[in-house]
Amino acid sequence: MTLDLEALPKAVPYLRAPSAVPSKLPIVAPNKLKVGLVFKGNPTHENDRARSLPSLAVLDDLLRIPDIEFFSLQKGAGADEAADYAQKHANFHDVGAQITTMAETAKAIESLDVVLTVDTSVAHVAGAMGKRVWMMLPFYGDWRWHYTREDSPWYPTMRLFRKRHGCDWSEVVARIAGHLKMLRADTTCV
Questions:
Q1: How far apart are CA 145 and CA 131, in angstroms?
Q2: Which of 6, 8, 76, 5 is nearest to 38 (CA)?
Q3: Residue 9's pLDDT is what?
Q4: Which CA distances in Å does 122 have to 17, 52, 71?
Q5: Is there a domain that residue 16 lies in?
Q6: How confident is the model over 54-107, as pLDDT tens digits?
Q7: Which SUPFAM superfamilies does this entry report, sorted A to Z (predicted)?
Q8: Domain that residue 151 falls in
Q9: SS (H, E, C) the chain
Q10: CATH of the domain at 78
Q11: Measuring CA to CA, which residue among 125, 126, 105 is closest to residue 115?
Q12: Beta carbons within 8 Å of 161's beta carbon, 6+ residues apart
């Protein structure tokens, strides 16, 4: 059996945040780009060593970009590191500590400009909501993301940032930084 990518439905969004669920995102200046962040998956996942970032410090260059606020949606592994970063960086907010349900996660995603994540459930929720989502992938990722694509046939608003063979995450972060700067410039000109 083969997958006919052209036959996939293009109806996105097909998931919405429940209106009755309050947002856990803190209020920030309206001219700031709001970026959701998940940097680690479940450590028991068979490919977690490759798909999760070794540390939040891998993304430090992104935190230095002006006029961007980061909202960690991190749960489980990495949650302590996210809480520590929120204490040290004024533009980093640990929302994951306050989120207890996927409905609350969806409500947080609804308020963001872009979700930057490794291959976790948050990527799928954001994609199903039609939210702009940028996923950081290892060189060999899950079959859903194919091996060379930079987009996703499952989620039209998703962009894939794949780690190149033999490179570390810094090369992925540099590409993302360029795209974040362009997105920030586009949103401030509107």
A1: 17
A2: 76
A3: 58
A4: 13, 13, 13
A5: no
A6: 999 999 999 999 999 999 999 988 999 999 999 999 999 999 999 999 999 999
A7: UDP-Glycosyltransferase/glycogen phosphorylase (SSF53756)
A8: 28-188
A9: CCCCHHHCCCCCCCCCCCCCCCCCCCCCCCCCEEEEEECCCCCCCCCHHHHCCCCHHHHHHHHCCCCEEEEECCCCCCHHHHHHHHHHCCCEEECHHHCCCHHHHHHHHHCCCEEEEECCHHHHHHHHCCCCEEEEECCCCCHHHCCCCCECCCCCCEEEEECCCCCCHHHHHHHHHHHHHHHHHHHHCC
A10: 3.40.50.2000
A11: 126
A12: 134, 135, 136, 137, 150, 172, 175, 176
Phi, psi of 136 (to 5 degrees): -90, 120
Number of domains in the chain: 1
Q: Give dist(CA 52, CA 38) in Å, integer.
A: 9
Mean predicted confidence (pLDDT) in 19-44? 88
- 39: confidence class by pLDDT, cuts 50, 70, 90: very high
Beta bridge partners of 92: 70
2 located within any domain: no
Query: What digits encode the pLDDT tens for the residues 122-166?
Result: 998 999 999 999 999 876 666 555 556 666 667 788 888 988 877
pLDDT of residue 48: 65
> What sign for the dihedral angle of Cα 70, 75, 80, 83?
positive
Domain presence at residue 135:
yes
The CA distance from 122 to 72, in Å, is 11
pLDDT number for residue 190 = 44
